[in-house]
Structures are given as structure tokens and as C-alpha cells.
Amino acid sequence: MKPSHFPLKNLRRGYSTLPSVLPSAIYTDPIRAHEPAISETPELLQIHRRQLDRALRVDQAGEIAANYIYMGQMAILSRDRALKPLIQEMWDQEKKHLAVMDKLQAQHRVRPTVLSEVAKVAGFGLGAVTALMGKEAAMACTEAVETVIGEHYDDQLAELESMPSEHPSLPLLKDVIREFRDDELEHLDIAVEHDAQRAPAHALLSSVVGAGCKVAIELCKRI
Amino acid sequence: MAAPSSARLLKLALPLISEHGFTRVALSRSVLHLPTPHPEPLSDAAVSALFGHGNVARKTLFNAWLEGGIESMQGSTTSASVKEALHARLAYNEPVLEHLPEAFALLAAPESGLPPIDSVPALKHAARVADQACYISGDPSNRLNWYTKRAALMGIYSAAELHQLNSPKTAHSFLDTLLSTSATIDSSVEEVKLFSSYILRSWAGIVRSRDIL
To answer: Model-level pTM?
Structure first.
């Protein structure tokens, strides 16, 4: 049963998209390193600068946590032949997300969160504990985290719409966040397809993990 | 003809600081340096209307000068090292050195009675200089290193600036000494971390070989 609170069908990205045309590819291409869209930050009103600051801070923290969640899951489930390649693929995508987020944080001169070490420990702990509970619980954890992150990226896209888009970096940022949101929703699909909703106490697990993610998002925005 | 904006007048007042200090006089005489100069300086009421009453106007001028200091760190090249950026910032102080102690005291004086000294503006000034130096040099520090790098540069720059107020001629060499000491400490810490990791790995190997875990 698909989560009813989030319209997945309109947001799924086609698998025919080539990696080289993805918006985030510009950040990993050293030839384009000096283009204004990825090397400069625009002049913004204080309110917009603050919104951008908080958005990128929490996005970077979220990608750190996601990396460590998959690291924790892999530490326990590496012997599962079916899940290992899936978790590895999702983890590799999160590594790419984090590399791009690091570049965005430097480009826009955003203060990173002080809670990065906490995000690492909490992420690894969450991944490992849910993996110890079973494969389905690990997938339920992925489902819950990716649902919250998908909604969060959607909220950020709405916030970015209110910012002026003359400088090329802001439309590119929207495209990158859209791409990452679609990636996270693909992970959510994968988790659901691999029996996330058969996890023991699925509703309780999802609500606890989801609530924890929301608290973490609010903390990382500010600290 | 449109009236000049307060931002434009602030820019015109900056070169007058060396002669008049961070004072309302410098602000009032800024209009004498417009492309079409005014016949006489601004009245005190006009300075208050544009920049604030009493010491608020002086603080506005000092903050504009500090902002100019951040811009001066870039220099003529697109990138510079941390050392070049900090030296450029110290050089920016030189024309107005005699007026700086009073200006910093003005910044530290709180708007209301308590606390007796407000240290936040001075910390913000050092933090901005450190952040700008890291940005100009393309410093790749991330996570907690972002904070430790900037904290170290804040300490170095603040010490060098204080030294400059007392002994301007030796300020640049003092800054060089602090930067080289900091680099030595950084490399020593990295070597200790590396050596500790070797020791931990060797102990992990011993524990594994003894089947303890």
C-alpha cells in the first residue's frame, strides 16, 4: 500500500535520464568549476539569505545523516545477498548528494551545522538498530526517513520560488533540489517494494523515526 | 537632481576618516566631495536625519569602514592566500590607526546600561575577517574543521590587530609569526592523530589475533 499522504506518481523520475544531464553533474565537472552558477552566490535580501542559509545547512546535515544510516544498515546487512546491492546503490547516491551539498555550502558561504558529529552517530545508530530488528525494519526506517526528506525538499522548493532568480545559481539550486527529491522518493519506492510495510510495528516505527527526523531538521536549521 | 543616498555619502566619508576620525564631522563634510559639491557641510540635524543621533552616526560610519575593510582583503587578484588577505586587512588599518582605539571603544559601549561592555561587535568583526580570509583563499574546511579554522584565524587576527594598535611597525611580522606557529601546531596535531591511528590499528590487530573479540 502506497503512503497516501504523498503524491508519488507525479514525482517519479524516468529511468531513461542520463547521468550526464542531471543538474548536479555541473558540480562534479571540474571543467565548469569557474562558471558563475556554481562559483558565486547572489546578493540577497537578509530574509532570503537567512532562508538559503538554513536550507543548505539542514540539507547538508540530512545528507550526512543519510550516509551514516546506510553505513549502519550495511554494517549489519552486508551478508544479505538481495539487500546488499540495493543498500550499496542507495548509499552511493547519498555520497554523491553529500559531495554536491558540500560544494553548495562552500559556494553560498553557509555556516555548516555544529551537529554534524551528532548526525553521524545518530544516523549510524538508527541504521544499525533498525537493521538488527530485521530487513523489513531497515526498509521501514528508509521509508520513513525518505518520506520526511521528500516532503522537506518539497517545502524548500516552495520557499525558493519566492527568491529572485536573476542570478544563475538559484535556478540551478532549485533543479538540484528537485533532482535530489526525486532520488529520495526513488529510495522510498525501493524500500516499499522490499517489504518495508511488513516490518514489525511498522506504524510505530515510522512515526518514531519520522518525528525524530523532524526534530533533527528543526535543530540543524538553527544550530 | 536626485539627492545623494546615505550609502553614497558614507562611501565619500571614508577617505575623510584619516583627517577627522570616526566623527559626525567626517559625515557632514562628505557632501563637499560629491561630483557637484555642496557649498557647505551638512548640518548636525541633517547628519542625524541621515545617519542617526549622537554616537549612532559614528557607529554607522565605523561599520561602513569595517565593511570596506572586508572588501579590501580581496586585493587585485581573484584569489589570495590567508596570509595575504590578513596582511591586506592590517594594511587597511594603517591610515586611520590613531582613531581605531576610540572607534573600537565606541563599538563596545552598549546601547543600554548593562552589560558594561558589549564584546559581541568585536567578535563579529574578527569572525567576518576570518571568514573572508577563508573564502578568498578557497579554504576547503568543512564540518567542525570549518569552525576550528575560523576560530584559530579569529584569535590570530585579533592578536595581530591589538599588537598593531600598540606597535604598528612590527604588526606584519607579528602576524607572520602567529601564522607560522599556527601552521606548526596544525601539522603537529595531524601527526599525533596519524600516529594514534597506527597505534589503535596495531592494538586492534593484536586483539583480533588473540581471539579476544
So the answer is: 0.83
Same domain for B50 and B89, yes or no, is: no
Best of B146, B148, B154 to disrupt the A interface by mutation (most A CBs within 10 Å)? B146
B147 and chain A in contact, CB less than 8 A: yes
Is position B186 within any domain? yes
pLDDT at B4 over 70: no
Q: Flag whether pLDDT at A28 surpasses 90.
A: no
Structural domain including B112 reads 73-209
The complex's ipTM works out to 0.82
Q: What domain count does chain B have? A: 2
Nine-digit cell string for A37? 552558477
* Same domain as B185, residue B87: yes
Task: Judge contact between A196 and A202, C-beta under 8 A.
Answer: yes
Yes or no, beta carbons of B142 and A117 under 8 Å apart: no
Which residue of chain B has the CA closest to A120? B143
Q: What are B153-199's pLDDT values in tens digits?
A: 999 999 999 999 999 999 999 999 999 999 898 888 889 989 999 99
Q: Are residues B133 and B180 in the same domain?
A: yes
Identify the pLDDT of residue B61.
94
